[in-house]
Amino acid sequence: MAANAGSMFQYWKRFDLQQLQLANRQDESEQSRKKLIDLSREFKKTTPEDLRKQVAPLLKSFQGEIDALSKRSKEAEAAFLNVYKKIIDVPGKDRCTTLRQRTPSYERHWRTTTKSLQKLKTKVRGGGKRRGYC
């Protein structure tokens, strides 16, 4: 465990949060989501009513999944930044000791978040195919 904490400390010491470009990705995601909303509205305006009624449940399902995915993505990013800030705020010499003590908690939290995201990805990717939508 000490070797893991030491190597983890070295990793976080070199880690560059700017490379992740979380803010840019969040903005792009929000713009894409807004574009989908606009396309959905345009579809409603230009499509005959009987066809709109047929696809409405499908569109609502996809909108719900996109909303849930967006929410979970934001939560995962916030959790990551929270862990990152806690690690960065630890004073230099005590960082390894603190990391050794906190690592199990961080790992549990990360595993839980990762599992939740994976379940949602599976649901979004595979859910439509099982129902015959895609």
TrEMBL record:
Q: Which UniProt keywords apply?
A: Coiled coil
Any one Gene Ontology MF annotation carried by this entry is:
DNA-binding transcription factor activity, RNA polymerase II-specific
Protein name from the UniProt record: Cux N-terminal domain-containing protein
> What is the superkingdom listed in this entry's lineage?
Eukaryota
GO cellular component terms, A-Z: nucleus
The UniProt record lists the Cux N-terminal domain at 4-91
Upper lineage ranks?
Eukaryota, Metazoa, Chordata, Craniata, Vertebrata
